[in-house]
Amino acid sequence: MDPDLIIPVPLHWTSRLYRSHNPAGLIGEALSSRLQAKYDVNILAKRKRTPAQTSLTPSERRTNLRDAFRVRRSRRIQDLRILLVDDVMTTGSTANAATRALLEAGAREINVAVIARAPGL
Is 67 exposed, middle or buried (0-12, 13-18, 19+ CB in 10 A)? Predict the structure, then answer.
C-alpha cells in the first residue's frame, strides 16, 4: 500500500506542554521520508484529555477514547489512503478511535503502522 498521506496519532494539547516530543510524530516523519509520502500533523487532533490507557481494561479503553479524535481539515483527506502511525498498540482502541474519525471525515482507506505491539489485557 502506497499511502497518499501519513498522519501520526496526536497527543492532546495539554500533553504536548509536558512532553518534548510525540513518538508517533517522530515515527511518522521518518516513514514519510522513507516512503516519499506527504506527512501532516495538523489534520487529526485529540479533542479531549484522557487518562493513560495503561491502567485501563480493554472496555474502559474503548470508552475512554470514544469521540476523543476529530479531523480538522476533512477536505484534505477526501478519498485518500492514509497511513496512521502510532508508537505502541495494545488493544487497538486508540487506532480504532482515530481510524473511525478519519473514515467518517471522508478518508478512503486507513492502514495502521506501529513500532511495538504489546500484549492485550
Answer: exposed
